[in-house]
Write a structure and sequence with these properties.
Layout lengths: L4 E7 L6 H15 L6 E9 L2 H14 L3 E6 L6 H10 L3 E5 L14 H14 L6 E4 L5 H14 L3 E4 L13 H8 L3 E4 L1 H5 L5 H14 L7 H21 L3 E4 L4 H6 L4 H9 L3 E3 L4 H12 L6 E9 L4 E6 L15 E3 L9 E5 L3 E11 L2 E12 L8 E7 L3 H10 L5 E5 L4 H11 L2 E3 L5 H4 L1
Parallel strand pairs: 1-2, 1-3, 3-4, 4-5, 6-7, 6-8, 8-9, 13-16, 15-18
Antiparallel strand pairs: 10-11, 10-17, 11-16, 12-13, 14-15, 14-17, 15-16
Helix pairs in contact: 2-3, 5-12, 5-14, 8-9, 9-11
């Protein structure tokens, strides 16, 4: 996945202290460009008159920017942002600097008024995807939202098989996904995924790694070997097909045709930074891409599983697929065979504690929505099979469950040890998506 390409331009008016403003712009932009996770495209001149905006537009079009920061260093002509918006046509950040100290004369920058002018013009002109920011530091939440947007739009996703049997709620209209995100779903058979070649040496290396990571006393040698081979062939498949993320129909056929389920393999590969979603859930896979871009290198696809209304917690659980690097370091990290009639071979461990969030991109009734919630994982004993974390959310668990069920959100969410609520809101505005808000009473609204 490539870096986002973000343009930045300085707009001023000579009737204000524009030379001081431009000096500030140069200093602050130099600091912004220290972030090498973004490919910055800085327009090298001040934009003052309409021809300047036309010239700057050509510059950003040629650079193929994904987003554009229009800095109101001072108040300026209203034409400038409109020209840039009309020609470049990317998400905009309208950034206005804080006012400089008064020196006994007229207001020196009047930058906030310039932002207000731009926002009003753009809104009345039909643009709803801009974000406004006032201050002397860049809005890093908006930058993170652009990273999420670009990651989603440029991802190559593979659907291995189909969605799991009966999981209609994770099925998608693939052309809706294309319209909303520009993503094409690439289809592969299960046999293509696990049927690749692996040398004895490759399998031996991965087998040693499995033994190092997990207690495997409940497995036989053939099962351990199958896990190791699957790690090899799945890695090769994703590399050869150049897919960034896959959604796998991991049951009911996988264990029957290959001999084990893919859970343990998924736990291992995800700990290495690869993205694999369970049960053919394409929107969960895309949510993993977004959460990765928000800062979580190894996201976990989980069910909102066991809940306790009295003690106000939920278990984020799934059949042993959590990245094994998320282990709490306390419990016995093992591989089990309880699933799929003894052919499951799932990872089993408790996840470590810390602040977390959950996200899901979810489509229902022709609309794409974002569900997001923050919480805290807390320590617990290993009392059941699978991979799981005990979480206390910002909202009471009863409110979280009501929000999910009464808006039809699918039963998979993506957990990460990052929190990015403002960036998520920015992403929703940029993409034109609805935000499912746990502060809203969806039950009473019915």
């Amino acid at each position: 996945m490539r870096k986002p390409r973000i343009g930045i331009v300085c707009t001023v008016r000579k009737t204000f202290d524009y030379l001081t403003a431009y000096k500030l712009y140069q200093e602050r932009t130099a600091k912004v460009m220290e972030d090498d996770s973004v490919e910055w495209v800085n327009y090298p001149e001040m934009v003052i008159e309409q021809p300047d905006a036309q010239k700057a537009s050509d510059y950003f079009i040629d650079a193929k920017v994904d987003a554009l920061i229009i800095v109101s260093a001072t108040f300026h002509l209203g034409h400038l942002a409109l020209i840039l918006n009309n020609r470049v046509r990317v998400p905009l950040l309208l950034w206005g600097y804080d006012e400089l100290p008064y020196d006994g004369g007229k207001i020196r920058l009047n930058a906030v008024c310039g932002v207000n002018l731009n926002a009003s013009n753009l809104y009345k002109g039909g643009n709803d995807n801009f974000i406004v920011h006032v201050g002397n530091e860049i809005d890093n939440d908006w930058v993170k939202a652009i990273k999420m947007m670009v990651a989603i739009k440029t991802t190559k996703i593979g659907l291995i098989g189909h969605h799991a049997d009966g999981f209609y709620n994770v099925g998608v209209d693939e052309l809706h996904i294309y319209r909303e995100m520009g993503v094409l779903v690439n289809h592969y058979e299960l046999s293509q995924f696990f049927g690749g070649e692996a040398t004895d040496e490759e399998v031996a290396i991965e087998k040693a790694n499995v033994l190092k990571l997990f207690d495997v006393k409940k497995l036989n040698d053939d099962q351990v070997t199958k896990v190791a081979k699957l790690v090899v062939v799945a890695s090769k498949f994703m590399k050869e097909q150049q897919v960034d993320v896959v959604a796998i129909r991991c049951w009911p056929e996988f264990a029957k045709t290959y001999g084990i389920s893919p859970c343990a393999m998924m736990s291992i590969l995800q700990s290495r930074g690869m993205l694999l979603a369970c049960e053919g859930d394409i929107e969960a896979a895309l949510s993993m891409v977004a959460v990765r871009a928000a800062g979580e290198p190894t996201p976990f696809m989980a069910d909102l599983s066991q809940v306790n209304y009295e003690e106000n917690f939920a278990l984020l659980w799934h059949d042993g697929v959590a990245p094994c690097n998320l282990w709490d370091g306390v419990c016995n990290r093992s591989l089990e065979t309880y699933f799929a009639g003894g052919k499951g071979v799932t990872a089993d461990f408790v996840l470590h504690e810390g602040p977390v969030s959950i996200l899901r991109i979810d489509t229902a009734r022709g609309k794409t929505r974002l569900f997001y919630e923050e919480g805290q994982t807390v320590p617990m004993e290993k009392k059941l099979s699978g991979t799981y974390a005990k979480v206390i959310f910002k909202h009471h668990i009863s409110k979280v469950i009501d929000t999910v069920v009464y808006t039809g959100v699918a039963h998979h969410v993506i957990m990460g040890y990052v929190q990015y609520g403002k960036a998520m809101l920015d992403l929703a505005r940029i993409m034109g998506w609805e935000v499912i808000d746990a502060d809203k009473d969806y039950f009473s609204a019915r």
